[in-house]
Amino acid sequence: MADTADLAAEREQLDTARAIEAARRRSPGAPVPCGQCYNCDEPLVEGLTFCDADCRDDWQLRKRMQEMA
Ligand SMILES: [Zn+2]
How far is ligand 1, taken at its centre, from the CA of residue 8, in Å? Predict the structure, then answer.
């Protein structure tokens, strides 16, 4: 049943790509990926700007506060 496993792996890759794409679209004004999290300086794989949604939210909140000040 190798076909089933291959299909599952393929679908998983598609889901990941779609999730990354969706995350990019959801955060307009996000900074350029620099290899580490903008919020906590955690090393990240290429193409990511934050380790997770919490870090992204924290960063966006802080940015908004700075813009208001
Ligand atoms: Zn982080």
Answer: 29
